[in-house]
Amino acid sequence: MILILLLIPLLTLVAILFNKRQTAPIAAVGSALQLLFTIALTWLFLKNGNIYSGSLTWFKPLNINFAYSLDGVSMVMILLTALVVFAGVMVLIVTGK
To answer: Hey, which of 16, 31, 71, 80 would disulfide with 89, CB 3.0 to 4.6 Å?
Structure first.
């Protein structure tokens, strides 16, 4: 679930790069999905009350790994970031700038 929060902005970026005429609606969908997944992750975090962590091997010959962990402070920061990004995109759409 945490890795989805990393993939949504990347997929949104790719969609915007391939369709530059519809940047605002694509950004709105991407930020709304990010906010919804963040709220779902926050709900799961509060319900289970545990720390999410994991590790993925990127390049085995050099022993390069991607490790991630989510605790209470980082969960609040992720939620605030998703709210600010969504609000910023909505302001952009409403003002038309």
So the answer is: 31
Q: What is the DSSP letter of 96?
A: T
The token duo for 2 is 């945490």
Flag residues of the chain having pLDDT under 70: 97
Cα dist. 18→2, 8, 24, 34, 79 in Å? 26, 16, 13, 20, 28
Dihedral class, residue 19 (left if φ above 0, else alpha if ψ from -120 to 50, else beta)? beta
Radius of gyration of the chain (CA): 16
Task: Round the average pLDDT of the chain to a whole number and report it.
Answer: 90
